[in-house]
Amino acid sequence: MEEIKGxxxxxxxxxxxxxxxxxxxxxxxxxxxxxxxxxxxxxxxxGVSRExxxxxxxxxxxxxxxxxxxxxxxxxxxxxxxxxxxxxTEEDIxxxxxxxxxxLRREGRKTALASASKNAGIIIDRLGIRELFDYIVDGxxxxxxxxxxxxxxxAAGGLKLRAEECIVFEDAKAGVEAAHNAGMRCVGVGxxxxxxxxxxxxxxxxxxxxxxxxxxxxxxx
Length: 221
Ligand code: BG6
Ligand code: MG
Description:
Elements: E1 6-9, H1 19-33, H2 39-43, H3 50-60, H4 67-85, H5 97-106, E2 110-114, H6 120-127, E3 135-137, H7 150-159, E4 166-170, H8 173-181, E5 185-189, E6 200-202
Helix pairs in contact: 1-4
Bound molecules: 6-O-phosphono-beta-D-glucopyranose and magnesium ion.
Protein backbone atom coordinates (compact mmCIF):
# COMPACT_ATOMS: atom_id res chain seq x y z
CA MET A 1 0.00 0.00 0.00
CA GLU A 2 1.27 3.48 -0.94
CA GLU A 3 2.49 5.73 1.83
CA ILE A 4 0.04 8.53 2.61
CA LYS A 5 1.78 11.73 1.53
CA GLY A 6 -1.23 13.96 1.04
CA UNK A 7 -4.28 14.39 3.27
CA UNK A 8 -7.30 16.06 1.71
CA UNK A 9 -10.16 17.47 3.78
CA UNK A 10 -13.70 18.30 2.90
CA UNK A 11 -14.78 21.37 4.90
CA UNK A 12 -18.50 21.41 5.71
CA UNK A 13 -19.21 18.63 8.23
CA UNK A 14 -15.55 17.57 8.50
CA UNK A 15 -13.54 20.55 9.78
CA UNK A 16 -16.60 22.35 11.17
CA UNK A 17 -20.29 21.70 11.57
CA UNK A 18 -21.51 24.10 8.89
CA UNK A 19 -23.78 21.33 7.58
CA UNK A 20 -26.29 22.43 10.25
CA UNK A 21 -26.20 26.03 8.99
CA UNK A 22 -26.73 24.90 5.39
CA UNK A 23 -29.73 22.92 6.64
CA UNK A 24 -31.21 25.85 8.59
CA UNK A 25 -30.86 28.18 5.59
CA UNK A 26 -32.37 25.67 3.14
CA UNK A 27 -35.15 24.92 5.63
CA UNK A 28 -36.00 28.62 5.75
CA UNK A 29 -36.21 28.83 1.97
CA UNK A 30 -38.26 25.62 1.84
CA UNK A 31 -40.69 27.15 4.37
CA UNK A 32 -41.19 30.22 2.18
CA UNK A 33 -41.71 28.07 -0.93
CA UNK A 34 -44.04 25.65 0.89
CA UNK A 35 -41.73 22.69 0.25
CA UNK A 36 -41.66 19.94 2.92
CA UNK A 37 -37.98 19.58 3.84
CA UNK A 38 -36.51 17.31 6.52
CA UNK A 39 -33.03 16.55 7.87
CA UNK A 40 -33.19 13.28 5.92
CA UNK A 41 -33.74 15.28 2.71
CA UNK A 42 -30.78 17.44 3.71
CA UNK A 43 -28.43 14.41 3.57
CA UNK A 44 -28.86 14.50 -0.22
CA UNK A 45 -27.60 18.08 -0.31
CA UNK A 46 -24.35 17.40 1.53
CA GLY A 47 -21.32 17.84 -0.70
CA VAL A 48 -23.52 19.03 -3.54
CA SER A 49 -23.16 22.52 -5.06
CA ARG A 50 -25.50 25.37 -4.12
CA GLU A 51 -27.28 25.30 -7.49
CA UNK A 52 -27.69 21.53 -7.49
CA UNK A 53 -28.90 21.62 -3.87
CA UNK A 54 -31.63 24.09 -4.87
CA UNK A 55 -32.63 21.85 -7.77
CA UNK A 56 -33.00 18.88 -5.39
CA UNK A 57 -35.08 20.95 -2.95
CA UNK A 58 -37.36 22.21 -5.73
CA UNK A 59 -37.77 18.68 -7.06
CA UNK A 60 -38.90 17.50 -3.61
CA UNK A 61 -41.63 20.17 -3.68
CA UNK A 62 -42.45 19.68 -7.39
CA UNK A 63 -41.65 23.38 -7.89
CA UNK A 64 -40.51 24.64 -11.28
CA UNK A 65 -39.09 28.11 -11.86
CA UNK A 66 -37.14 30.19 -14.36
CA UNK A 67 -33.36 30.33 -13.93
CA UNK A 68 -33.53 34.00 -12.91
CA UNK A 69 -35.91 33.15 -10.04
CA UNK A 70 -33.75 30.19 -9.01
CA UNK A 71 -30.74 32.50 -8.87
CA UNK A 72 -32.67 34.82 -6.51
CA UNK A 73 -33.61 31.91 -4.24
CA UNK A 74 -30.02 30.62 -4.14
CA UNK A 75 -28.86 34.12 -3.21
CA UNK A 76 -31.48 34.37 -0.45
CA UNK A 77 -30.34 31.05 0.99
CA UNK A 78 -26.72 32.15 0.84
CA UNK A 79 -27.56 35.41 2.63
CA UNK A 80 -29.02 33.51 5.58
CA UNK A 81 -26.11 31.08 5.53
CA UNK A 82 -23.61 33.97 5.63
CA UNK A 83 -25.33 35.35 8.74
CA UNK A 84 -24.40 32.11 10.50
CA UNK A 85 -20.87 31.60 9.20
CA UNK A 86 -19.67 35.16 9.70
CA UNK A 87 -20.24 34.62 13.43
CA UNK A 88 -18.02 31.52 13.56
CA THR A 89 -14.81 31.45 15.59
CA GLU A 90 -11.95 29.03 16.28
CA GLU A 91 -14.31 27.41 18.83
CA ASP A 92 -16.32 25.99 15.90
CA ILE A 93 -13.51 23.72 14.69
CA UNK A 94 -14.65 20.13 15.26
CA UNK A 95 -12.87 18.14 18.02
CA UNK A 96 -9.25 17.30 17.24
CA UNK A 97 -9.26 18.67 13.67
CA UNK A 98 -6.76 21.49 14.22
CA UNK A 99 -4.41 19.27 16.25
CA UNK A 100 -4.59 16.61 13.50
CA UNK A 101 -3.68 19.16 10.81
CA UNK A 102 -0.74 20.42 12.88
CA UNK A 103 0.45 16.84 13.50
CA LEU A 104 0.25 15.89 9.80
CA ARG A 105 2.40 18.82 8.79
CA ARG A 106 4.89 18.08 11.55
CA GLU A 107 5.13 14.55 10.12
CA GLY A 108 6.01 16.09 6.74
CA ARG A 109 2.72 15.32 5.03
CA LYS A 110 0.93 17.76 2.72
CA THR A 111 -2.58 18.94 3.51
CA ALA A 112 -5.30 20.29 1.22
CA LEU A 113 -8.83 21.56 1.55
CA ALA A 114 -11.25 20.36 -1.14
CA SER A 115 -14.67 21.93 -0.74
CA ALA A 116 -17.62 22.44 -3.07
CA SER A 117 -18.40 25.64 -1.16
CA LYS A 118 -17.85 29.09 -2.60
CA ASN A 119 -17.77 30.27 1.03
CA ALA A 120 -14.85 28.03 2.04
CA GLY A 121 -12.36 30.92 2.19
CA ILE A 122 -14.58 32.94 4.55
CA ILE A 123 -14.98 29.94 6.86
CA ILE A 124 -11.33 28.94 7.17
CA ASP A 125 -10.42 32.58 7.83
CA ARG A 126 -13.06 32.75 10.58
CA LEU A 127 -11.59 29.53 12.03
CA GLY A 128 -8.03 30.86 11.66
CA ILE A 129 -6.66 27.74 9.96
CA ARG A 130 -5.81 28.90 6.42
CA GLU A 131 -2.07 28.50 6.99
CA LEU A 132 -2.52 24.83 7.91
CA PHE A 133 -3.33 23.93 4.28
CA ASP A 134 -0.70 23.61 1.57
CA TYR A 135 -3.38 23.96 -1.10
CA ILE A 136 -7.02 25.00 -1.16
CA VAL A 137 -9.69 24.14 -3.73
CA ASP A 138 -13.10 25.75 -3.28
CA GLY A 139 -16.39 25.94 -5.18
CA UNK A 140 -15.18 28.90 -7.24
CA UNK A 141 -12.45 26.74 -8.82
CA UNK A 142 -14.44 23.72 -9.97
CA UNK A 143 -17.37 23.15 -12.27
CA UNK A 144 -18.44 19.57 -11.57
CA UNK A 145 -20.12 18.64 -8.28
CA UNK A 146 -19.22 15.59 -6.17
CA UNK A 147 -19.48 12.62 -6.84
CA UNK A 148 -17.41 13.87 -9.78
CA UNK A 149 -13.75 13.55 -8.70
CA UNK A 150 -12.76 17.00 -10.04
CA UNK A 151 -12.36 18.69 -6.63
CA UNK A 152 -10.09 15.94 -5.23
CA UNK A 153 -8.01 15.59 -8.39
CA UNK A 154 -7.50 19.37 -8.36
CA ALA A 155 -6.36 19.13 -4.71
CA ALA A 156 -3.90 16.31 -5.45
CA GLY A 157 -2.63 18.26 -8.48
CA GLY A 158 -2.11 21.33 -6.28
CA LEU A 159 -0.11 19.22 -3.84
CA LYS A 160 1.82 17.70 -6.77
CA LEU A 161 0.89 14.20 -5.65
CA ARG A 162 -0.69 11.20 -7.36
CA ALA A 163 -4.19 10.10 -6.34
CA GLU A 164 -2.85 6.87 -4.78
CA GLU A 165 -0.65 8.91 -2.45
CA CYS A 166 -3.65 10.79 -1.02
CA ILE A 167 -6.40 10.04 1.46
CA VAL A 168 -9.66 12.00 1.76
CA PHE A 169 -11.73 12.83 4.85
CA GLU A 170 -15.43 13.23 4.01
CA ASP A 171 -18.79 13.40 5.76
CA ALA A 172 -21.05 13.00 2.72
CA LYS A 173 -22.04 10.05 0.58
CA ALA A 174 -21.39 12.05 -2.61
CA GLY A 175 -17.95 12.96 -1.23
CA VAL A 176 -16.98 9.34 -0.48
CA GLU A 177 -18.00 8.44 -4.03
CA ALA A 178 -16.01 11.38 -5.41
CA ALA A 179 -12.88 10.27 -3.51
CA HIS A 180 -13.22 6.73 -4.86
CA ASN A 181 -13.87 8.07 -8.37
CA ALA A 182 -10.59 9.97 -7.98
CA GLY A 183 -8.82 6.71 -7.07
CA MET A 184 -8.24 7.80 -3.46
CA ARG A 185 -8.86 6.10 -0.15
CA CYS A 186 -11.55 7.71 1.97
CA VAL A 187 -12.23 8.06 5.69
CA GLY A 188 -15.86 8.75 6.59
CA VAL A 189 -16.19 11.35 9.37
CA GLY A 190 -19.20 11.47 11.70
CA UNK A 191 -22.08 9.22 12.56
CA UNK A 192 -24.17 9.43 9.41
CA UNK A 193 -25.50 6.06 8.22
CA UNK A 194 -24.70 7.23 4.66
CA UNK A 195 -20.98 6.44 4.94
CA UNK A 196 -20.93 2.64 4.52
CA UNK A 197 -18.86 2.93 1.35
CA UNK A 198 -15.95 4.66 3.15
CA UNK A 199 -12.76 2.58 3.64
CA UNK A 200 -12.49 3.68 7.27
CA UNK A 201 -14.73 5.50 9.73
CA UNK A 202 -14.04 7.93 12.57
CA UNK A 203 -16.46 9.78 14.84
CA UNK A 204 -14.24 12.88 14.95
CA UNK A 205 -10.50 13.71 14.91
CA UNK A 206 -9.83 13.27 18.62
CA UNK A 207 -6.48 11.42 18.92
CA UNK A 208 -6.60 10.66 15.20
CA UNK A 209 -3.35 9.22 13.75
CA UNK A 210 -2.80 8.75 10.03
CA UNK A 211 -1.11 5.38 10.56
CA UNK A 212 -4.50 3.99 11.60
CA UNK A 213 -5.65 4.12 8.01
CA UNK A 214 -3.69 1.22 6.61
CA UNK A 215 -5.28 -1.47 4.51
CA UNK A 216 -4.66 -4.13 7.16
CA UNK A 217 -6.69 -2.12 9.68
CA UNK A 218 -9.66 -1.74 7.33
CA UNK A 219 -12.79 -1.67 9.43
CA UNK A 220 -15.96 -3.50 8.63
CA UNK A 221 -18.52 -1.16 7.09
C1 BG6 B 1 -20.61 21.79 0.37
C2 BG6 B 1 -21.77 21.47 1.29
O1 BG6 B 1 -19.42 21.75 1.09
O2 BG6 B 1 -20.77 23.07 -0.20
C3 BG6 B 1 -23.08 21.62 0.55
O3 BG6 B 1 -21.64 20.15 1.79
C4 BG6 B 1 -23.16 23.01 -0.06
O4 BG6 B 1 -24.15 21.40 1.43
C5 BG6 B 1 -21.96 23.24 -0.97
O5 BG6 B 1 -24.37 23.14 -0.82
C6 BG6 B 1 -21.96 24.63 -1.59
O6 BG6 B 1 -21.78 25.59 -0.59
P1 BG6 B 1 -21.91 27.15 -0.79
O7 BG6 B 1 -21.32 27.70 0.49
O8 BG6 B 1 -21.10 27.52 -1.99
O9 BG6 B 1 -23.35 27.47 -0.97
MG1 MG C 1 -19.10 17.89 3.76
